[in-house]
Amino acid sequence: MYEYGVPEDDHIALPEGLDLEMQFPMAVGTVGDFASETVAKVIGAEGDAHTTRDEVIFSAQVLQAFDDSLLNQDLSFNLRLLAAAGFYLGDVPGNAAVQISKLSQLANPEGDPLALAAKTAMDKPWGQTGNIVNSSYATDLLGALGEHFKTGGGGDRATAAIRKLRSWSYASASAHELLMADLLGAISATRIANSAWTLLPQYSELSGNSWQPYLSRPTSIKEMWPSQRMVGEAGLYKGQSGVVQMPTSAGKSRATELVIRSAFLSARTKLALVIAPFRALCQEIASDLERAFRDDGYNVNQLSDALQPDIEFDIFDVSIESAPQVVVLTPEKLLYTLRQEPDIVQRAGLVVYDEGHQFDTGTRGVTYELLLTSIKRLLPDSAQSVLISAVIQNAAAVATWLLKDESRVVSDKSLQARRLIAFASLPQGRDGQLQFNVASDSEQDFFVPRVIIPEQQPRLPREKTDRYFPTKESGSIALYLGLRLLKNGGVAIYAGRKASAAKIVRDAVEQTFRRGISLEPPSAHSDPEEIRRFVNLYSKNFGADAYLTKGAALGIFAHHGNTPQGIRVAIEYAMRQRLIRLIVCTSTLAQGVNLPIRYLLVTSAMQGRELIKARDFHNLMGRAGRAGMYGEGTVIFTDHRLYDERDTESRRWSNSVNLINPDNAEPTGSTLLSLFEPMKNETGTRTLGKPSPAEFATMIVDNWEELYEAIGNISTELQSKKFSVGSLREQLRAKKKIVEAIESFLMTYRSDVDTENFVANAKDLASETLAFSLADQEQQALLAGIFESVARRIEVRVPNTEDQHRFGRTLLGIDQALVVEAWVIENESAIGASKSADDLFDLLWPLLTQLSSEKRLIDTVPEGALKALADGWLAGRSFAILLQELNVLDASYPYGKYKKSFDLDLVVDLCEQTFGFEFSLLLASVKESFVARATEELGKSLTGHLDLLQKRLKYGLPDQDSISYYEAGFSERVIAQALSEGMIWESARSRNGARKLIRQYPNDIEVILRDFPSHFTDVFRSTVAS
């Protein structure tokens, strides 16, 4: 109740007869017994008693809870010390670290050297410990610990010191000293047993001398957490492959670093590929690895995700003289690169798939699955493959497919931070409450009263109706709770859709804080300098009066698919550094980035019309309660109707409860198999029986245009059952994307054989996919049949095998590739005459709009408005100016029966998704077609223009100079241009060129970056130091 700010007068009285202090003897005794048994085992005096880890963890939780209750603050030091020791000895080092951090907030006790020594042993025993405590027994033991963490020795000395301490304490010590002596001995023994000095040589089968340069550094890993030990026990540090199911916050980043470091130290390889599904995650991984390997001479490269061969291929060099290389990239970039240079993978001795459960995530899932299928074909048998995921339920099935061995699974379900689940409730006639553990059969439920207390707000001019905050809407309740709780730690408000997330921020700016409330804005608990920097960046991007800029000034930040990439990364960094406290996000929060969130406030479990997948929800929940930072995380469902109407709306309630149970998470599937899922109505409650899903799939391959037209004439009966033309066509387009990915895949692997052999090879390729591995016999036959149908269609539409190979490199399907090819042939002379990237874009615009899936490109009025938007994007103009220019043109697009003007979120979406992603993909195809027909000289000249245009479209930048700074790590349009303009005396022609200039003129760069979020200063410092 203290945590939730409930006034003391409203605290719920403890049940009569319940005295929490009476639980002390049991809790303290359990921790002490476990410590005593640990020491006895170390000195060879093990007895019959065996206290379980679950018992000691529960005891630590009891001690922590009493400390948090503030019922007796005189006991705080001992409570926190005992809780930390219980968690640590119970193998929950994340929670132990939180308790140690809280312990450091208190003054050290007088005359209790063993307690102080136990605290030191759990904290940083590798520091200066010689004169910390006034006890020769403790000093000897701490000295042995310090020696161990400096040199890897000291083990025998520590055991001898533990034995002496034990003998003295059991002969002469008081009861308190005896307890502290056992804790000190047990903690020290466990420290050495779990230390990297002890375990890494054993796990990697490398000598201690091999590890010595790394382990002797202050920044090296000192102790291995449970998941990291399991990875070692499974042989991954000595080159074994595996599928790793590791909970969020369990030490995955360190484990990945150690797998790579072991591979390089053992000389098994000089090239490691790390594949991560999102740009932000790639950037985070690359930054972490760059810091980790800075003193080793290992190179870390993050490739741009522009689909062009902009790779300096010496980063794939594995010659004797070359330094070991880590290359971090997205699946799309690697798939494109493989289709240009397939031997790259053959040079890799290690491939790591981070967030490796992406096989059933729509079109990207198909790309991911076909990428891994390609890598499986190309990777040498001696290479190591490691797939890591926190939420992969059927790891054995994936291991069977990827590694041909279901036993190659490392699974650890232990959590390093506890999570509580609560539901908001608005009882009739009372203030709002939070109901805890009501969805759990194994934990005691309870409630916290008076957590939601609506307050009347001042009226705005000409308003006659009183307004209250929060309202009964889930978004309003989430904002209210976030404002009350953020003083305790980071808060994320989750919304199922981008528009919902934007509304929460907009309402906070235009309604809640504009009217005024008693609660402080998040900026009051944020770093004021960081807020200033963000407001400056937002003003330059969106304008000073934009709701996003005003939200940033309040300390409220949107984090979703329409948040520009550079801003999103800056927000994540600021949250990690605790410079800001509150974000409003969509499922972008589940995309692997590490954020220190204590509270996750869930406004809705729906994503559009669909319930969020249990697997994705657990990935979200994993962000609450960062191990080592918060002892626990709390997930609060803020839609009060879920709990208050659980009897009348039982289905909605049961859906929410099912999301919480990890056993209900779906197994990882394959988007390829969704080809054979039935067509559904708008509500998902009915399916079409005829044609069958298999017949639909075949028609998509062979008769796409006729099928698409036919869907426009569905019967009145079907319409009455909630089937609509729009919904059915949307489902068809999704299935068509899958077919196009198969077309591209088969064309890539088209060998010079006749048609029947090609068809047979296609069916073999089908059998190599995860989809085939997961499918039943009927689905396997259907999948093989689709691959056969696609192969025969390829032979008919593109009979020339060289054209097939070329089309396969574009990542487009046959139909779009042929449209591009025909256009290039028709416009070949005009393309050749183009003198610049801008000339090419003007020429290409009709083709790009024809092939784009974005309907607004066609139906926006006035004609030419979105061409002007694209030109402004290429010129590097801010989103605020781009929107202003559309408003001057009075631009609008059809919205139902009406016309709608453009807003800031839509402008960002068009620029980043349509121009930045879709157009870039189409440009790659144009280049392939043109270069294949042009002379070498002309092809080289036009390739330069096309590559520049593609990157300008990707990033929204005007020239190569600003692109170079963007790709050097300053991945934000305003900042990249500010650096380019600030260095007018010298131009950067590449990423490496920009990095060189940054090192050459650090003072000039630092001055520019002072007005932008600190993430970019961190990038700058890393660049200068590298």
UniProtKB/TrEMBL annotation:
- SMART domains from the entry? DEXDc, HELICc
- Domain of life where this protein originates: Bacteria
- Say if the entry is tagged with keyword Coiled coil: no
Q: Which UniProt keywords apply?
A: ATP-binding, Helicase, Hydrolase, Nucleotide-binding
Q: What is this protein called?
A: DEAD/DEAH box helicase
GO MF, one example:
helicase activity
One Pfam assignment = Helicase_C
